[in-house]
Write a structure and sequence with these properties.
The protein is of the alpha+beta class. The protein is built from four helices and eleven strands. Strand 1 and strand 2 form a beta hairpin. The longest helix has 13 residues. The termini are far apart.
Length: about 220
C-alpha cells in the first residue's frame, strides 16, 4: 500500500529539502527552547473518542487519531542527504475496511540549506509540488485549524483517485495528513475531518512515563 504514495512522497522530499526551519540557524539551543514551549501541563490529557485510538510517532513528537478498526497498518522510515540539506522521514499508512487510505508523513529537516526559508515559503512549495504532478487537478489551498495550529488544506484529483491533503509546517519539520479515496464525497465524511484535524504536537514523555498514556494536548500557541 505504501507504494501508491511514493510519487507524492518523492515530491514531498524534493521540496522539503528546501523547507522551513529558518529558526534552525540559531542552533540546537533554540530547538530545545521550542520543545519546552510545546510541552503541555501533565493535567491536560486528551482522550481518544470512542472507536478511535491515538497513534504516536516513534520519536514521540506528535500523535494523531485513527479508527480502532482498520484493515491494515504500515510504518516506514527513511533518511536523505543532498548538498546542504539533510533529514529523516517517517510514514504511517492505514487502509480502512471501505478502501479509503489514511497517510501521515513527517519530514524532519536540517542542514545549512534551510536557514533562509520561511514557513510560508514551505507551504507554497508543498502545494506547488502537488500541483506539478502530471494529469492532476488541484484545488486552491485554504486555511484549516489542526489542533491548536493553523494548516493548509487542498484536494488533488487524478483519473483514479482523489486525495484530501492537510499540511502543517513547524520549524524544522513538515507533517502531512492525507486521505485518499476513489470519490471526493468519501473524503467529506465526519471521520475524515476527525483524522485530518487530530494532529497533536507534544514533548517526548520522560523515560518512566507509561507507554499507554494518552498524548498531552499542546497549549495555545504564543502570540
Amino acid at each position: 500500500m505504501v507504494r501508491r504514495f511514493l510519487p507524492m512522497l518523492a515530491l514531498v522530499l524534493t521540496v522539503s529539502l528546501l523547507a522551513s526551519g529558518q529558526e534552525a540557524k540559531d542552533g540546537k539551543d533554540k530547538e530545545k527552547d521550542k520543545d519546552k514551549k510545546d510541552e503541555a501541563p501533565k493535567s491536560n490529557i486528551v482522550k481518544a473518542p470512542e472507536g478511535w485510538k491515538y497513534v504516536k510517532a516513534k520519536d514521540m513528537s506528535h500523535a494523531f487519531l485513527v479508527p480502532r478498526e482498520v484493515k491494515s497498518e504500515e510504518r516506514s522510515e527513511g533518511s536523505f542527504k543532498s548538498g546542504d540539506f539533510s533529514g529523516k522521514t517517517a510514514t504511517y499508512v492505514a487502509t480502512l475496511k471501505d478502501g479509503r487510505t489514511l497517510v501521515v508523513v513527517q519530514t524532519n529537516l536540517g542542514g545549512p540549506g534551510t536557514k533562509d526559508m520561511k514557513i510560508k515559503d514551505v507551504y507554497d512549495l508543498m502545494y506547488d509540488a502537488d500541483k506539478a504532478e502530471k494529469g492532476v487537478k488541484i484545488s486552491e489551498p485554504k486555511e484549516i485549524t489542526v489542533g491548536k495550529r493553523k494548516g493548509q488544506e487542498y484536494f488533488v484529483t487524478d483519473k483514479d483517485s482523489v486525495r484530501r491533503v492537510v499540511t502543517v509546517v513547524v520549524p524544522g519539520r513538515v507533517i502531512q495528513l492525507v486521505v485518499e479515496a476513489d470519490k471526493r464525497e468519501k473524503l467529506m465524511e465526519k471521520d475524515c475531518d476527525t483524522f485530518l484535524t487530530s494532529l497533536i504536537l507534544y514533548a517526548p514523555p520522560k523515560k518512566d512515563a507509561k507507554k499507554d498514556e494518552a498524548p498531552k494536548k499542546e497549549p495555545p500557541k504564543d502570540k
